[in-house]
């Protein structure tokens, strides 16, 4: 197993202390109030979390994908919304680093490293969901500008993002359709409206918004890499990071569910003994721990392939698929173990149960992940 460097281990430990000391004692009240975690976001900036993927040359403190995975899990163990507040940001940093021009990198990466500017990505459309190639948002050339028309939905951090990696069609007539897509580095301005915050079951605190582009103008040089038509492939590479990140959010929720359940099962007694000694409860705990460990190893495997420079879209999809399903199981089992208290808003386990479904449907539904996985199985078999 590939271990973390000493400084990476120290960073993970630092984030864990931040979660245990600052977040966990206060998270329940903030989550129930749907309060934006401004102070915690500022602390995350100070910890360097927004610069974890930014190269040193641009002011970042880059870490391995395995280290990033561990940090994401710790944040989600405290509050899944905190991991969401830096997830899309990191994907945009990766996109800029891999595909941006030197001018684009110099313009954005130093500010992204400190969190002075925070980034998000805009893919999903109201009528498209996971079918990205069916998107209707267009960016039409008009002299030296692009004119963007269309809408996006479920965009995390949209009200606070200073940079939006917008996937849209620059050539609607291209065949195959994905050849006509580009990523536009959009910024808030005239013609871009954040129309509303979507009400949600869980994932509170950070906003998920609808965006409307109504004759929104931006220089054509804002296309990532400046050459149109590569956006779909670029975003698919970025989503390797995104899906590993979502898998790690799921790990954090599952870890918190297990942590709380193990503590409660040792403190709560029935029929004269701690409830963990009842076989039915003990079996839940054993299964939770086993599945969580398996999900971690699958996620670390995807992260290690990424660090090795190997293709990992299938592995990231597997990690996201398995870890998110395990998080949902663990959250439900935590409710079972807590009994009536698990249904009470006075305990954190009800929050885990509300947060867990996001990882099943977010960053490409698990049904889409299965399509990605089987497609890669066939392609890699050499028999298609």
CATH architecture of the largest domain: Up-down Bundle
Average the pLDDT over all residues and give the rounded result.
95
At CATH level 3, the topology of the largest domain is Butyryl-CoA Dehydrogenase, subunit A, domain 3
What's the number of extended β-strand segments?
9
State the major sheet. Answer: 4 strands, antiparallel
What level of helicity do the residues show? 40-55%
Number of structural units classed as domains = 3
Could you state the CATH homologous superfamily of the largest domain? Butyryl-CoA Dehydrogenase, subunit A, domain 3
Could you walk me through the main structural features you see in this protein, from its secondary elements to its overall organization?
It is a single chain. Helix 5 packs antiparallel against helix 7 and helix 7 (231-267) packs antiparallel against helix 8. The chain has three domains: 6-118, Acyl-CoA dehydrogenase/oxidase, N-terminal domain (Butyryl-Coa Dehydrogenase, subunit A, domain 1, Orthogonal Bundle), CATH 1.10.540; 120-228, Butyryl-CoA Dehydrogenase, subunit A, domain 2, CATH 2.40.110.10; 232-381, Butyryl-CoA Dehydrogenase, subunit A, domain 3 (Up-down Bundle), CATH 1.20.140.10. The protein has 384 residues and is an alpha+beta fold. The chain has eleven helices and nine strands. The strands form three sheets. A four-stranded antiparallel sheet has the order 2-3-7-6, with helices on one face. The radius of gyration is 21 Å and the shape is globular. The relative contact order is 0.11. The model has no long low-confidence stretch (mean pLDDT 95). The chain is 52% helix and 15% strand.
